[in-house]
Amino acid sequence: MQGGSRVRSPNLSLVLRQLRDQGPRSRARLATDLGLTRSAASTLVAELEELGLVRTAGVERGGVGRPGSLVEIDGRAVCGIGAEINVNHVSTIALDLSGQVVAEHRLALDAHRLTADEVLDKLAELVRRTDADVRTVGATPVGLTVGVAGLLDSAREVLAVGPNLGWRDVPVGAGLRARLGAAYPLGVENEGNLAAIAEAVPGDATRQDILVIFGEVGVGGGIVAGGRLLRGHQGYAGEFGHMIVEPGGRRCGCGRVGCWETVAGLRALLDAAADPDDPVRDPALSLDDRIAEINRRADLGDTRTRAALDQVAGWIGVGAALLTNALNPAAIVLSGYFAGLGQQLRPLIEEQLQAGVLAPYSGGTRVEFSTLGFTAAVRGGAAVALEAVFDDPTLVAPRAALVGGTR
Amino acid sequence: MQGGSRVRSPNLSLVLRQLRDQGPRSRARLATDLGLTRSAASTLVAELEELGLVRTAGVERGGVGRPGSLVEIDGRAVCGIGAEINVNHVSTIALDLSGQVVAEHRLALDAHRLTADEVLDKLAELVRRTDADVRTVGATPVGLTVGVAGLLDSAREVLAVGPNLGWRDVPVGAGLRARLGAAYPLGVENEGNLAAIAEAVPGDATRQDILVIFGEVGVGGGIVAGGRLLRGHQGYAGEFGHMIVEPGGRRCGCGRVGCWETVAGLRALLDAAADPDDPVRDPALSLDDRIAEINRRADLGDTRTRAALDQVAGWIGVGAALLTNALNPAAIVLSGYFAGLGQQLRPLIEEQLQAGVLAPYSGGTRVEFSTLGFTAAVRGGAAVALEAVFDDPTLVAPRAALVGGTR
């Protein structure tokens, strides 16, 4: 174990991350980038090749000196699995090390009509199916991260309060471990945090310091700083919906008064946009269809719809400005129903941001809308599972049996 | 440069940080901690010894196996210098690599009666004196970080707006470089950010995820996440005082309405606590003395003073709760005038935090009061300057000339 030939995992990790974040490059370039000797960089690349995590791919163009062969991430050896428990569905995704989708499953259900145990049973079944898919293509699953909505006690992996699911003190981590065994690490994470990490695309410098704000009936989200999720002391960061923005305002589902979600959440929009018997307020219809109808009315210039959108956009902007004063992110990425109505909401959100942020030009903070839709949380879960490999590539067993094989 | 014997700086950095954050330990323990081979750890320690950054100190107790000699940071070889430009004074401090104060200077002035150039002249003179002090004890200054209050364009190191100083578009970085030459790196940073990093004591696990909120007439601060300063996209993070907490409330100096500092800043307290001709509102008297008088009145049970403190404490708590919902820090460290009145303010701040935070027990976020007083920003500046050495210890020239010398 203490033999002189074992290469250090901190440097293996640096090399693997550099290839992910900065793209394919030669061994010489890696050495320069990371302050390593050239021979050290070559040794590290060789070890990562042996682990099946990188491969040689083409020749460097346009560099100074002799052309070197390029090294790139080889995604195929390992996969991270992300899963999500939602009031309307359970779902999974498997992403390989280069972020490609290897498998995806989704099962509609109504969590209110099932016990927590029944929901966990169904999710475990989807994970088993996803795991089998991953092994079918010759890859190894390295971890599973499950997203849940609500207040998660992350030390115990217990969902303390899941208001939309109607769950209290459900041991999600232990429940899934009992069903799935311990073939690889399993983590439980707030859904907003996972959605946030999914938006922080590796290698995209404009997406490494972002706020992701997710709007449904509740409003939540996550903070990514320097490409890393900011979880907070006990994992409760990102509860944006319960920032009090209107003292003495409306009562929130949480019992407080004036929470941001009472004025920026889906219910605030629907209450203002339509009468109670209007189909856009019918929870039995698909949210996508109801959002499409609101877009249609707004495009036709319907006064009530436009006024409702303007009112909600103003409040979204108030909260966004408040968070921008505190955090000065490169971008605020609006997700959930906000994304579906992005074109309608953008002008007034940007106006409020300009008005409410002290720094000139809103501190450069851009307003963006998510394009990941409902897959954001599972994608983030898979990315978190893969982080373990980027942290310590030696977690992956050497591919001795596969050398010279079919891959 | 590419010789095989050069040891990698990423691992040198890891070893040096480990000794700073986790305290003295044996080479074997360092190897285990960092996933290095034992021989690699010994080589790295030898290189750091040659650079004068670590030394052998005593023998490990209570470990398993043979006792090993302990390695610890040797602070004496290098110093970071922190400086601050304030409306009432300019000041500097030099801290060695283990955080000990080597020199400290402070010059009272009235920035409103001087030009920006005159203020920079005086600060440059203090820096020269501090630099000389550092060299007198045989250490090498490795960097200077200057804190300024206001909106700093960090890319250009220009203070865009310094409301208290009355400065606009002052090129602080270029101005000091012209005066001081380029003997070592010079940085300019928002004062609130520097105060924040000063509170994040290395090695204190309870102080690595904190919000620091600084209260004078203005309210600002900084965010430390995972021991690192969160500067934001353009360096404007931490403008807490301009979060709008009372829509339709009082007009702020920034032109907006309802900013947090209009209800939590020093002026809000003084307006409520005393008539205009009361000495506690006389800006010609020292703030420390005025705070002492308010404490005295509160302790005597003066109704008006206590009501003013309660009102301000409630608003401090409202903003603290809002930030805690977003960030869930381990602690909120209150600094500036908040610290001077900590005993009076604490109960209502904690009550508001409990009431306003969604997570149970305020998400574990503690309310603390700074003990650094006016030295917070300069201490943070020196710490930032020293970070360059922790990032790359090879920046320090080998101490060949001193080997076998008096040190």
From TrEMBL, chains A, B:
<dbReference type="InterPro" id="IPR036390">
    <property type="entry name" value="WH_DNA-bd_sf"/>
</dbReference>
<comment type="similarity">
    <text>Belongs to the ROK (NagC/XylR) family.</text>
</comment>
<protein>
    <submittedName>
        <fullName>ROK family protein</fullName>
    </submittedName>
</protein>
<dbReference type="GO" id="GO:0003677">
    <property type="term" value="F:DNA binding"/>
</dbReference>
<dbReference type="InterPro" id="IPR036388">
    <property type="entry name" value="WH-like_DNA-bd_sf"/>
</dbReference>
<dbReference type="InterPro" id="IPR043129">
    <property type="entry name" value="ATPase_NBD"/>
</dbReference>
<dbReference type="InterPro" id="IPR000600">
    <property type="entry name" value="ROK"/>
</dbReference>
<dbReference type="Pfam" id="PF00480">
    <property type="entry name" value="ROK"/>
</dbReference>
<dbReference type="GO" id="GO:0006355">
    <property type="term" value="P:regulation of DNA-templated transcription"/>
</dbReference>
